[in-house]
Write a structure and sequence with these properties.
Blueprint: H1 5-15, E1 20-24, E2 27-30, H2 31-47, E3 55-59, H3 64-76, E4 80-83, H4 89-99, E5 101-107, H5 117-123, E6 127-131, E7 139-140, H6 141-146, E8 162-167, E9 177-181, H7 182-196, E10 203-205, H8 215-219, E11 227-230, H9 237-247, E12 251-254, H10 256-269, E13 278-281, H11 288-298, E14 301-308, E15 313-319, H12 321-328, E16 340-341, E17 346-350, E18 363-368, E19 375-376, H13 380-386, E20 387-388, E21 391-400, E22 406-411, E23 416-418, E24 421-423, H14 425-433, E25 438-448, E26 452-461, H15 469-477, E27 488-491, H16 505-513
Parallel strand pairs: 1-11, 3-4, 3-5, 4-8, 5-6, 6-7, 10-11, 10-12, 12-13, 13-14, 26-27
Antiparallel strand pairs: 1-2, 8-9, 9-19, 14-15, 15-16, 17-18, 18-21, 20-21, 21-22, 23-24, 25-26
Helix pairs in contact: 1-2, 2-3, 10-11
Length: 526
């Protein structure tokens, strides 16, 4: 027998029935009740003719019901799809149609965001279920549970059966449906718990969105029984601090943009978080300056995670607190690493001919693990380009050093080729981030009549009046090669970002192409 995540829920309900599984503001649910309500919803879906393999989508902010429904899906073998409430109706429809969802569960305050989609979907036979207030959808979640029972017939599940379809964040093009198995989900949850060092006594807070791959992080408490905290809808800084102190959160996760904002508020308002023992962070690269500032401000251990959707999140590498302390104590290069590969992954760096690179040589990061996706939904060509002989080609560029630390240099499609030289934007961003007047920076390649592409920095500064273009260029020249120095710097009030906090560099480049941002040379005709 291979235990799957649905088995862990049942075990938690039996072994620790009254222990709190989730807190959400003043609400909470224990493991026994979570299991019971998941069974009720599973039986209600069966009563509507929904069975193994049918896809269930959800449009919602973060509430307990989201995770009741997810566990119901796991019990029945129903692939679960998160649908970003920030999407336009057309984008929502794309995900629903692409995944062939037969059921869509919608929080009441998200119904209006869907425009005329509910009527269209209902006319096509999609089962629409509302919850959390007045929604005017055909079915109500609480009514379905009230008229159900827990005598649910659980289908046999194999480890390769589909557990979820998680759509990529779309930073490199249209979102792709990533097919994730029950066994991959289990392995990702269990090994992340082990590698981060979470115990059943921890209180875990992942104030992120279940619309993308971090649903794995939010629900991984299932495999060790610890209590998790939900953000009571969505992340809001002041509520975040309140939740940590109210529920005595011991471990949390942040993305860099969130970390910057929280540091500012903590300093401004003298906020203390005495229960925190560990902060994990990831999603997009953090600069050494930010890591140093976070360690000083939060006063607890720090641990960086690197993972991608295509490995069920998987959290491929972990920078342990001990290694972070080494970096803070003077081994500066370690603060630019995302840690050592977790032991449920094989990690190799390969060149353009797929040869394994020696240490300290940059190439594409290849991964092998039980957590690998099964492929991209309906995209055979892209699947075959990404999955090769049991390995996953990440499209991320990086290198391993002699100690086994992984360093991300950039994504392949972010690489700037200026003249005959390759420039990794992240390297330039790391230098600029050290400047005292820089709040945030994105570096992109912009078409240039002489160099093909030119390095351009888009920057948010603390004080616009104090910005000195020549001084900033001179600052860059001290720490980077001549061809890496930005040919132009543009000040902006905001940098486009996706749901995960990653900078949308294609959007930035589009702003130069359509004239919203400008450079002091004429752009070549496209």
């Amino acid at each position: 027998m291979t235990a799957l995540v649905r088995d862990f829920l049942l075990r938690a309900a039996k072994a620790m029935p009254k222990r709190i599984a989730f807190y959400e503001g003043d609400r909470s649910i224990d493991w026994a009740t979570l299991n019971q309500r998941a069974n009720l919803f599973a039986k209600a879906l069966q009563n509507k003719g929904i069975g193994k393999g049918d896809v269930v989508g959800i449009v919602s902010h973060e509430h307990i019901e989201v995770y009741e429904a997810f566990h119901a899906c796991l019990k029945l073998g129903l692939p679960r799809v998160g649908i970003n409430w920030r999407f336009s109706p057309n984008e929502m429809l794309y995900v629903i149609n692409d995944s062939s969802a037969k059921v869509v569960m919608v929080q009441a305050n998200c119904v209006d965001l869907m425009g005329d989609l509910p009527e269209k979907l209902a006319s096509e036979g999609v089962i629409l279920i509302g919850y959390g207030g007045e929604h005017n959808l055909p079915y109500d979640y609480e009514e379905l549970l009230a008229n159900s029972d827990t005598d649910v017939a659980l289908p046999e599940l194999n480890q390769d059966d589909l557990a979820a379809i998680s759509y990529t964040s779309g930073t490199t093009g249209s979102p792709k449906g990533v097919l994730l198995s029950h066994f991959g989900l289990r392995e990702a949850m269990m090994n992340t718990i082990i590698n981060v060092g979470l115990t059943p006594n921890d209180v875990w807070y992942a104030p992120t969105s279940s619309a993308w791959i971090t649903f794995v992080l939010i629900t991984m408490n299932t495999v060790n029984g610890m209590t998790a905290v939900l953000p009571e809808g969505d992340f809001e800084p002041n509520e975040y601090f309140e939740h940590i102190n109210k529920h005595k959160v011991t471990v949390t996760i942040m993305v860099p943009i969130m970390m910057r904002r929280l540091i500012h508020l903590m300093e401004e308002n003298n906020i203390k978080l005495p229960s925190l023992r560990l902060i994990t962070y990831g999603s997009s690269p953090s600069t050494p300056q930010l890591i140093r500032k976070a360690a000083e401000t939060f006063g607890c251990d720090m641990s960086q995670l690197y993972g991608i959707t295509e490995v069920t999140g998987g959290w491929t590498c972990v920078m342990s607190p001990d290694d972070t302390r080494r970096g803070l104590a003077g081994e500066e290069h370690l603060l630019r690493s995302c840690g050592r590969p977790a032991l449920h992954f094989d990690v190799e760096i390969r060149d353009e001919k797929n040869n394994v690179c020696p240490p300290d040589t940059s190439g594409e990061i290849w991964l092998r693990s039980d957590c690998l996706m099964q492929g991209y939904l309906g995209l055979e060509k892209q699947t075959n380009e990404t999955l090769k002989d049991g390995w996953l080609c990440t499209n991320d560029l990086g290198y391993l050093d002699e100690e086994g630390f992984l360093y991300l240099t950039d994504r392949k499609n972010n690489l700037i080729i200026t003249g005959a030289a390759n420039v990794f934007p992240s390297m330039v961003e790391n230098v600029l981030d050290e400047h005292a007047n820089v709040v945030e920076v994105a570096v992109v390649g912009v078409p240039h009549p002489e160099w093909d592409e030119a390095v351009v920095a888009v920057i948010i500064v603390k004080e616009a009046d104090a910005f000195d273009y020549a001084e900033m260029i001179a600052f860059c020249k001290k720490s980077m090669a001549k061809f890496e120095v930005p040919k132009h710097i543009v000040l902006v009030d905001e940098i486009p970002k996706g749901l995960t906090g990653k900078m949308l560099k294609k959007d930035i480049q589009a702003m130069f192409k359509d004239g919203r941002l400008s450079v002091p040379w004429e752009l070549p005709a496209s």
